[in-house]
């Protein structure tokens, strides 16, 4: 398993050449950044003539000119591959749709906003040729982000390090490279509440870490406002940890002990000290507190049950409306 310094602690096998590379970018209302993104990846491909590059875009139900721009790029450049989803399904599902069709020796997930610099792909190619199946990109600097975003991200990653049942890499987003066999293995994970960065660690295989400085967003608005960040954090906590359930058990035992102590004191106060219990306000406050706590615990349990219900329905994760420059093949959903 890799460490936070960026070096791998595993012995790698003999080198394996990387002949084809797919750059996978989910897009939702990215009209402001698409030209700059295409220019950067075009230069990247020109600087690596030994590899054949494909630029795979997943249009996640955009309602601006993103679909038109993508179709124009696909018409001008046969390396540009486009999947148009029939409706907006979210960033993680859009990544899934791209991985379902990506067919290269190395698939690199990166966002079109250029916060994750495409130039880092060169290092990923070197790591893949050295034998790594999953190349995790760890942020060293987070330029252009507010103090709240940095603080909440740091808190989230450190919390998940304690809650998750497996080792967790802090400050690693979705920017990573996946070998062909890692992508094929990823396709077997079909849960509707997806957290791709944790699934990549769940895969196992040979993993390594590279570090990079994250740049400010080039244009447009973030696609992860506070509400979506909270939803993603909930999916991560409930999808990859049973700690909330275990926490409820320990909390119930603690409160049970407190209530027994209070009961013993109340009986002693009444029968030995002959005091009358007073304070209806305090009593009501206690009832309301414990009732709210019980509802909160039931809500956590309900979230797990709801995920069981939704996964049991076996609905498709997404629906493809049309594609560009992709071979005629069924897309797993």
Structure overview:
- Helices cover 46% and strands 17% of the residues.
- The protein has helices spanning 34-46, 66-76, 91-101, 121-129, 147-163, 180-186, 196-203, 226-239, 243-271, 280-313, and strands at 20-27, 52-59, 80-85, 106-109, 134-142, 172-179, 207-214, 320-324.
- An eight-stranded mixed beta sheet has the order 7-5-6-4-1-2-3-8, with helices on both faces.
- The two termini are 31 Å apart.
Tags for this entry?
alpha/beta, 46% helix, disordered N terminus, 333 residues
Topology:
Blueprint: E1 20-27, H1 34-46, E2 52-59, H2 66-76, E3 80-85, H3 91-101, E4 106-109, H4 121-129, E5 134-142, H5 147-163, E6 172-179, H6 180-186, H7 196-203, E7 207-214, H8 226-239, H9 243-271, H10 280-313, E8 320-324
Parallel strand pairs: 1-2, 1-4, 2-3, 5-7
Antiparallel strand pairs: 3-8, 4-6, 5-6
Give the neighbour order of strands across the main sheet: 7-5-6-4-1-2-3-8
What is Rg? 25 Å
Largest sheet: 8 strands, mixed
Morphology: elongated
Short description:
With 333 residues, the protein is α/β, with parallel strands linked by helices. It contains ten helices and eight strands.
């Amino acid at each position: 398993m890799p460490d936070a310094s960026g070096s791998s602690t595993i012995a790698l096998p003999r080198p394996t050449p990387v002949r084809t590379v797919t750059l996978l970018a989910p897009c939702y209302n990215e009209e402001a950044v698409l030209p700059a993104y295409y220019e950067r990846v075009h230069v990247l491909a020109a600087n690596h003539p030994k590899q054949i590059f494909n630029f795979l875009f997943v249009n996640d139900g955009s309602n601006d000119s993103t679909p038109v721009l993508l179709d124009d790029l696909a018409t001008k450049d046969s390396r540009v591959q486009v999947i148009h989803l029939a409706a907006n399904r979210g960033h993680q599902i859009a990544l899934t749709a791209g991985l379902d069709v990506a067919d290269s020796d190395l698939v690199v997930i990166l966002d079109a906003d250029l916060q994750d610099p495409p130039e880092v792909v060169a290092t990923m190619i070197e790591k893949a040729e050295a034998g790594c199946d999953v190349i995790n990109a760890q942020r060293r600097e987070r330029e252009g982000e507010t103090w709240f975003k940095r603080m909440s991200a740091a808190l989230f990653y450190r919390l998940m390090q304690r809650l998750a049942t497996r080792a967790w890499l802090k400050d690693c987003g979705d920017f990573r490279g996946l070998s062909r066999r890692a992508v094929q293995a990823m396709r077997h994970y079909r849960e509707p509440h997806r957290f791709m960065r944790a699934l990549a660690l769940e895969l196992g295989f040979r993993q390594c870490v590279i570090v990079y400085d994250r740049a400010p967003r080039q244009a447009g608005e973030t696609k992860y406002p506070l509400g979506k960040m909270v939803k993603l954090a909930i999916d991560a906590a409930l999808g990859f940890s049973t700690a909330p359930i275990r926490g409820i058990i320990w909390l119930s035992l603690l409160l049970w002990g407190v209530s027994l102590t209070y009961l013993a004191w109340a009986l002693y106060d009444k029968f030995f000290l002959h005091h009358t219990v007073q304070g209806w306000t305090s009593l009501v406050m206690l009832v309301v507190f414990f009732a709210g706590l019980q509802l909160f615990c039931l809500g956590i349990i309900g979230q797990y049950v709801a995920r069981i219900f939704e996964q049991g329905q076996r609905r498709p994760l997404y629906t493809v409306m049309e594609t560009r420059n992709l071979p005629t093949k069924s897309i797993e959903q």
